Amino acid sequence: MFIATCHLFIFCQVYSVDKQVPDSACTATAFLGGVKTNARTIGVTAAVESGNCSSSLPPDRKVISAVEEAYNKGMTDAEIGGNFCYYF
Q: Domain locations in the chain?
């Protein structure tokens, strides 16, 4: 019922660095981590190419997601899940 009466609509477009049509991994990294990355990679910066696992090892190439940041700040799984469902 809420959806039928909701007058707020948010449209978000997310692209990958190296492809015009992104996949779910790179779009999740961009949406939850705020960093665009290459297609077929998740949780790393665009400095990491797909299939090159050793290039993801330097700590500065890891992307911290909003969920991981909340967990690091002491939120419980239930709080994180509830907030995620509320805002998204």
A: 11-87
Q: With contact defined as beta carbons under 8 Å apart, do 32 and 67 qualify?
A: yes
> Is 56 a catalytic site residue?
no
pLDDT digits (tens, 9 = 90+) for 32-50: 888 999 999 999 999 999 9
Say whether 62 sits in a helix, a strand or coil.
strand
Whole-structure pTM value? 0.71
> Which one of the listed residues 24, 50, 54, 56 is annotated catalytic?
24
**Nearest partner of 34 among 10, 6, 8, 64, judged by Cα:** 64
Give the max Cα distance, the chain: 49
Strands (DSSP E) contained in the chain are: none
Asked if 41 and 47 touch (Cβ cutoff 8 Å), the reply is no
